[in-house]
Write a structure and sequence with these properties.
The protein has one domain. The longest helix is centred in the middle third of the chain and has 6 residues. The strands form two sheets. The protein has a two-stranded antiparallel ribbon. It has two helices and four strands. It is of the alpha+beta class. About 15% of the residues lie in helices and about 25% in strands. The radius of gyration is 12 Å and the shape is globular. Bound molecules: zinc ion (2 copies). The site of one zinc ion (ZN) has 7 residues, from helix 1.
Length: about 80
C-alpha cells in the first residue's frame, strides 16, 4: 500500500478528478507526498531529486528509470 513518506497516511484515490498526491524521487526511491504535507512540510522538496534536463521535481520511477513528468527526460 502506498503511503505518504512524511506522515504515513495511506494514499487514496479521489472519487473524481486528478489525485492531489505528488510523486517525487528521494534517495533514489519513488515516494508519495500527501496534500497536507505538501503544504505543511515544504522541506520535502529540498530532499527530492530534480530533473537534470529542466530542474523539475515532478519525477517518478518506471522500471528502475527516473522519468520527468515535465519534459519527459528519462535516465
Ligand atoms: Zn503526509
Ligand atoms: Zn525535466
Amino acid at each position: 500500500m502506498a503511503r505518504c513518506f512524511i506522515c504515513g497516511t495511506e494514499a487514496t484515490d479521489p472519487e473524481k478528478g486528478p489525485s492531489r498526491w505528488t510523486r517525487a524521487v528521494v534517495d533514489d526511491e519513488q515516494v508519495l507526498v500527501c496534500p497536507d504535507c505538501q503544504t505543511a512540510h515544504t522541506d520535502w522538496i529540498d530532499r527530492a531529486e530534480s530533473c537534470p534536463g529542466c530542474g523539475s521535481k515532478k519525477l517518478y520511477k518506471s522500471l528502475g528509470d527516473k522519468v520527468c513528468r515535465a519534459c519527459g527526460h528519462q535516465w
